[in-house]
Predict the 3D structure of the following.
Amino acid sequence: MRAIDLRSDTVTKPSKEMREFMMSAEVGDDVFGEDPTVNKLQEKVAELLGKEAALYVPSGTMGNQLCIKAHTQPWDELICDKDAHIYNYESGSIAGLSHVQVVPVNGNRGIFTAEQVEEVIRPEAYYLPKTRLVCVENTHNRGGGSVFSLEEIKRIRNVVDKYNLKFHLDGARLWNASIATGISLKEYAQYFDSVSVCLSKGLGAPVGSVIAGSKDFIKLAHRYRKAWGGGMRQAGILAAAGIYAIENNFKRLADDHRRAKYFAKEISKISRIKVNPDEVETNIILFEVDGLTATEVCQIVKDPSKTGNSLLLSVGKKYLVRAVTHLDVNDDDIEDAIKILKAHFN
Ligand code: TLP
């Protein structure tokens, strides 16, 4: 019996080479700003994103929430898609940590338009919340790895400027967007005041994210990181994994995308499965199984008694199952995953 784990691209384990690289990292006390490997990672990501400064943080959630905190004041309002990670999967931290409320817009698979943003911006009045921030997620997790077009990002930036707002990018999977489109990280990042990227998703590092922005912005976020208990000491040992991941695992995301498209195409032939392979742009596949909730589907395919193997999937929405390709699954694993779905749902 073996388990094929397509729950998330967060499940990857650091390779032998990555561990060796981590072992040999030079370290220092990062709370004093003295960890050379953390500093190197921060400089590297700032450069890749074309920003003045960057800050290493323990998780994507902390990265996003620090940016939201640093852009807003209590009683403000932010605009994001109804399916955004910051709004759905970060434990209510927009309210809890920043005391900000959300205006969710109804995007298409997480992708919304400049017109939708403009429509919900509040006029100035003492009795209205103050619209302060717009947040985009690219690629969009709950949208099925969908990619925001640069054109729409530019149009939203124009609205952001018109109303003197700030613009944040949850780029946990910006790496995937860049590989899928050929648009560089920098080209995407130039339109945003802050960007958060994850090292522990498709890139395969065990821990960590980086946020980037202007020097002043990062200075403020640094203060909040410490206040929230995110100041780390000899973190270079972890940051080294991030450097290794960027240098070795960025370009290979194309393999994950190829496998995701193939997987979607093959499972679309299974009678009880509903999926649109044309919607698979990166490494996330969302599909439905006729008459079953996503939780039921996950339970059925996890049980190895019928096929000898176990397939691990996750819940996207009540009726949407999520599969994610990543560094630790190869072509054979994908074939076996397809076989398991066929055995259960054909
Ligand atoms: N996403 C996780 C789960 O939380 C759903 C996953 O398995 O995909 N932004 C985006 C777009 C994300 O997908 C995630 C993680 C985060 C932020 C948060 O990152 P972490 O888990 O490091 O806090």
Notes: Residues 8, 10, 59-61, 64, 85, 89, 137, 141, 170, 172, 198, 200, 209 surround TLP (CB under 6 Å). The CA atoms of residues 82 and 177 lie 20 Å apart. Residues 253-267 form the longest helix (15 residues).
